[in-house]
Amino acid sequence: MTSYALFGIVAGILSFLPCPFYIRSILKGKTRPDRVTWWILALVSGMIAASSWASGARETLWLPIGYALSFFIIAVFSVKYGDGPIQLHLLDRVCLSLAIFSIIVWWAFNSPLIALCMNIVVDFIGLIPTAHKAYVRPWTEDRTAWIIAVTASFLNLFAISEWTFAISAYPIYVFIFNALITYFILRRRFQW
Question: pTM for this one?
Answer without folding.
Answer: 0.84
